[in-house]
Queue: 3 jobs
Job 1
Amino acid sequence: MYKYPYTILLALSLFVASIMYVGNGITNFVERVVAAQLSSGDGSETEEAETGKPTEPVSEAAEEPEGTETLESEEESDISESEAEIAALDPGNEAAASESESETVTSDSEAEASVSDPEASVSDPEVPFTLDDALFVGDSRIVGLFEYADLGQAEYFADRGMSVYKIMGARLTMPDGEKHSLEEVLSSKAYGKVYVMLGVNELGYDLERTAEKYQDLLNFIEIWQPGAKIILMANMHVSEEKSASDSVYNNERINQLNGYLQALLTEDHQYYLDINELFDDETGSLASECTGDGIHLKGQYFIQWADWLRENEI
Amino acid sequence: MVFSSLSFLFCFLPIFLALYFGASEEWKNRCLLLGSLIFYAYGVREQPLYFLLLLMSIGVNHYVGLRIGNSEKHFWEKLWLCIGLVYNFSILLYFKINRIPPLGISFYTFQISSYLIDVYYWGKGRMEESVIELGTYLCMFPQLIAGPIVTYSTVAPQLRERKHSLDDIEEGLRDFTIGLGLKVLIANRVGGLWGQVNTIGIASISTPMAWMGLLAYTIQIYCDFYGYSLMAKGLGRLMGFHLPDNFNYPYLSVTMSEFWRRWHMTLGKWFREYIYIPLGGNRGGKLKTIRNLFLVWLLTGIWHGIGWNFVLWAMVIFLLIAVERLGLGAFFQKYREVGHIYMCCCIPMTWLLFAVEDLSQLKLYFAKLFPFTAGVEAAVYQADYLKYGHMYGLPLLAGLLFCTDLPRRCYEKMKHSPVSALLLVVVFWACVYCMYQGMDDPFLYFNF
């Protein structure tokens, strides 16, 4: 027998793994049955089940082989912590939101135009437009923007794989060389503008839930940076080829998500910027010469993006 | 369905092996044929035509083989051989020109053509009456889609009679696991770095990044192909087949000629046996030898793909080999250290011709590698090599190590201790973990 140690060890490990796999399946099944009974049985539990429920499709989506991010429980708790924080910090938040609802209609319909419309812009004509007082929040696309284009004194809180689900728990290295959370960054100084581009890593999740998380992030920035203009940047399209071959990362979903994001804008110092006008081809996809992998811009095109940001004064 | 996928490892393979080992001796080949057809059909499920093409290839070549073998007159033998070869190669060429070759067609066309030529040269003795045996030879799944290219004469005796033993299973599983590790833990990881180069765009990479990317591609292409060949060999061994080796540490060569005797050995052997030697080999004087080499390399280039970069690639290798023949090779054989340095320059450079299909991009890449040659202006993140070196440093170093025969020599020493078995189990589950996390796909590995 000891002549075939690998065969035996491999067989053993496979055996153990399959037992664990089946056992895990049974546990999950039992848990689901119990949860279903609890939620249908008691009224007071319903609320808890409801708040707990939306996370369920999320973790399921994460298990899909589409390369979507797996939410770690640690981060999950971080997010809920900060959620609680938001609620504690800003009890009048909802009232404020409903108060400005009358403005929503106008700012929504003008959202696209507002960029170039001098009237909609609150900026003081005396002070020349600068990105030096800006903070950029985002994922790998923002990282690329800072790596390949010169944005002066602007700062960024961005990382590869960043998403609205992870951002509250994330700690990233900032210019001072130390790791900071978004809260620490936002509370450290008053920025003139906060640009946000997130959403592509969230495409595997339910879009409405992503929009809710986006709203939380927006509120969070509002609290810490009440004087700053907040600019939501539309998610950049993917290439036609990528869009056609991918059920998750496609332009239909990106446009849908962008629609949700645009609807989040409620205040007159919140703006929506659509970069796609710069890089789209005639099919409404990211032009193929601008991208190597169908999603990211090639290095040289980040310069055009930065120039475009400077042209579109806010 | 590639070998390094969860669906193959945990679905296809266990079911197939259970049926295969449960089947009686006479049913084993049929079981292998059926399993292989299912394997292929799944691989081309979006293009059912390709599946038909494989079936037709078996049918047509079986028939043509019988006609050649049973012909009394030389004229008919020759005519049928021509018909068979024209059929095989026109289909291959058609798909190569259209750049969407069906899965494995480059490999199975060469295999089945070798069968026809063998029957033509050696007569009835090499002919196969049974369409099942011929079909099993052609599409047995371990070597169907990526080689090694096995000639019918080497497999035929094993198809008719082979032994199944626990020794073979142990050896087969070991080879398979090592191959899987090379593919998943090294090639796919390192491939991510090459993917980064293309994501950033050649215009925007720094010079150190260009070198690092080229190194990554050089390691990836070797570990990927070697790993896959090793998996094929291991799978064959599980079923009692002894498939030939495809690689013999090619990166340790000192000349280009030696490199191509140690890289994709079964393809080189095919060209030697069926093109180079029939043309006269090196027996017709220097000029004829050079002509024969030229033809072989032109065809090798076309086999890899139709495009100017492949022609260029093949011609550069032809020139190097021709120059080596004229005396330079002997020099490198004598001063091996110089030969290694020469190879360290040549191998990555030839792979670059292979990897970058667009000629203007190729020019740009050379300008990035040697920034003194031409002014290169574009947005460049100067610290990119630090960032990606940090991300990919470990798999790069491991890849470099596995380009030598050092790991294999250590492994052979400790093969009989249970430690090696334990190590391989760890490798296996590490691969499964990476595949499960989607890290096996170089594209998925990095998030956005």
Job 2
Amino acid sequence: MSNLKEKLKNLKGDKPSKWKEDADYRLNNRWLEYSSQIARRIIALIKEDKELNQAKLAKALEVEPQYISRVIQGKENLTLKTIYKLSQALNHELISFPEYEFTQPNKVNEKIKWEVKIVNLSKPPVFKEFIH
Amino acid sequence: MKIVDIFVDGESGEGLYSMIYEGQPENEFDRLFNLWTNIEYVTFYCWDNKEYIETEYFFGYTIDDVINKIGLEAYELERLIKLKTEQNFAVPGNTLQQMFRPLNDKEGKLYTHQQSKAKIDNKRKFPKPILRMYAIRLSKNTFVITGGAIKLTHKMEEHPDTASEIEKIKKVKNFFSNNQIEFEEDLKLFYE
């Protein structure tokens, strides 16, 4: 056994690092960039609305607060259905779509032609309905 | 205060270790990457440190730019360290010593218990990197992570978080001295 290894032996803790496993997951799941972008938008909306918080959002979506916590950390693989429900509860779009030229699938214009209007702004938002 | 293997050569014991401090649930190395890849933590950290970001040091960067930058740097730093574990990190050209440099930029020589740091070294793709890992050099190609930070000021003393990292490095240095972990005999090989 090398001198270095021998000397360090007695200083070792018993809780091993999980980094290799975590790093593999983060490096191989780049959709995490998308979930981080959505999380940033939710964080900003919560910051702006004093009546809104993670617990209320969890109730509005009928999920556990821990789930919302993971969403806000950007770690949750969100389904389109969940993004839709979150958008409704927040009364703001979380994703938008560029102006596609469907006859030229490789061409994407920079400007946003429209956002999917999944929230009926003429009605009180779902979240507000819940808190009143 | 204990140490944990991050990636270590089974034969020689060379490699990367991390400190785990009393009462902490995880070691410093794991903790840093878990924080830097947590967008909630990064966003609030930048908002809470607005006055440091809106200075000449960050000329031209908005808070949103800094949040993006942290995400990109965390990915790249993790990728580069992961590559070291997949390739032989003892061969010239891929050593840990190339990634961990003296903390003091003016120090030209390497020595045991030297305060060290790692950051992304790619000025073209990552100008002015802000993520730092701090470490103590134990022996040839062997480092122990003491902590790390999102560096928002020119000097470490200018922000409470980086200032506390200096204290952590000093405590770890004393810890190794008190435990007679010194490898002066390897110094001549440090430059390989």
Job 3
Amino acid sequence: MQNRAVITAATLALAGDSPPSQADLAGDASLEPFRVERFQDDKSVGPRPTERSRHTPLSLRLARETRRLLNAAGLSDDAVKGPATGLVSGSRYGCSMVYDLNRRLRDRGPRGIDAVCFAQATHNYPISVAAIELGLNGPCAALVGSPVAGMEALVCAVDWLRDGRCDRVIVAAYEDLDGVATEHLRRQTSEVGAFQEAMALLFIETGSAAERRGAPILAELRGVTILPRDAGAQDVSAMASRAFDSGKQEILHSIAGLGGRASSCLGASGLAEIALRVAYERENRERNWMIGAFDPSAGGAVAAVSVSPAEREIAA
Amino acid sequence: MTRKVVISGLGVVHRDAFDVPSFQEWLMLGGGQAEEPAHFDTTAFRAKKAYAVDPVALLPELKLRLKRLGAAPVSDAALDCAAYGLAATAEALDMAGLDAVARRRAGCVLATTSGGLMDRFADGPADAADQDDVATAATPGASAEIIAATFGLNGPSANFSCACASSSMAISYALSRLRNGDADIMLVGGSDRMRAADFAGFNALRAMDRDACRPFDVDRRGMVIGDGAAMLVLETEASAQARGAPSLGSLVEVGMSLDAHHITHPNPEGLSRAMRQALDRAGLAPEQIDYVNCHGTGTPVNDRAEIEALSGVFPVTSRRPVISSTKGATGHLLGSAGAIEAVITVLSLAAQQVPAMATTRTPEDSGFVMPGADGPWPLSGRFAMSNSLGFGGINSSLIFENAD
């Protein structure tokens, strides 16, 4: 029998307005001029000296959000240490240090590239540093480049749980729109659209692992499905029917990209929406959601999520 | 019940061989020597040599393959981004006998390190005539999108970038899609184009040998990087049998782990865990593995850690596998390394011989049998393993079985 997957914590950080609203997550691109909201790195809470040599701004943000997620899950560092915890990330643009490396070489020549900045210029650097800090030894992967990379990361995490490769996975989706990424986004969107840097994290566990430690369950992942590039609404409906008793239960849909909406968090959109539903906008009764992201160039992924009633909520 | 996954097609693009038969022949004879890349200037760097494909030389063959398969038109920028992957894909799809209808249900999962043309986009003038095409091919996932669109692969797609373990992580994802029923055919592999920045970075790390990569040699001094592409068509056995497709072997299992130790220095315990996980999940004893294609970068640190990990998993008291690293012949293809080494492992099982290690003239006393420098080494078993280690401590171990 396959392991059941549940969400026991979620965090969402969005550049600009806080707390996040539905309008932050999706909007009609045709109505807005080009705008990119970026996280403001607060120098007063910048890296401690021990962190300074290790972290990039992105990896530091991920490390801090991971701590926030573990706090929300009610877990200490020791509890997640070891091979039972995996870590996976998804991002459209990935780590901006990768692009910065090319510019450094152009502007400063070979001497402009040192061993540290090169080691930091991999898309898995942020999650690898987080794993080192927390001592995570489970599976680890970075998915980059797809407009729905965050949802692909969730698919990967569910694979690992259901295969019994680990008991819990930290799933991260983010966008880091530094320099070249913003220039590229402007070019690709014909200078129209509103975009935000974002970082959404989910803590997902097997149902048995969550029950063993008595963790309140924010939501159950009833299924995750891949949408092909030529997908339509019927594919989502078919999945919803499989995941839920659709004759009896109301099913709500929120799939970034499928209805022609421009998603402002890019590769983080689907995961940001799940975090929003399970941790920030919960109601006092169970809600069944089909949440995901879709793009015609890459297909997509949709999660069937049963959000638990709010009275069982723990601090998110 | 777990679905059996077979390999029905392979494709390779390497500096010295643009297809599988010529690659296999070239490899078994020991490969070639590293040279200065044709497409960028390396005079300012300490180590100057690599195994870099000449994209101009590949182009005529690529155009023939695209035409033969009735592929969609490809822009010049898309060719610049994904030519190696497109050529290897065309070969793999052709070998698997996948026509346009069958391709529609196939998925596409790729691996890169930096991928895409973001360097060219960043450096190009905004008013350049092809800047829109360059932008379309700029993101790290562009090769996957271009390949899927060109060949009409409409199934699940994704792009992995986990440093040098990228390809094997992509293979694990493709395996899950097949076993979970998300698709019955998956194209998976790696496609990487060498950039001057990669060259500068490995030079800065002092991880490159000036002349040759000598894996497991007492005189090893580092790696030599390369580029190219390698693709595998993975397919459920039921689908392959229904199509009458060839089975070149099967992908049995994948093990994955994280060191949580150091960004650039591997910890043997991490790789040991990945190998043990793969063996346990496959239900195999260590002595059933006949050959291990090691990550074997030729750096002192990597090879030492790998031998330590192998020694723990394959005890000296039992029958040990033959081990080798093929990076002395091919160079280190970074994000594509896991894919080209998976192809080599499948070919080695099929041919029942391991390629010569031509650059390893004075092998260290590792406790494992390694092929010599002068010719291939015979195999006699059904199972082989291919290991990948990436920056950040990501490890994976793939197990393949020879076709019946």
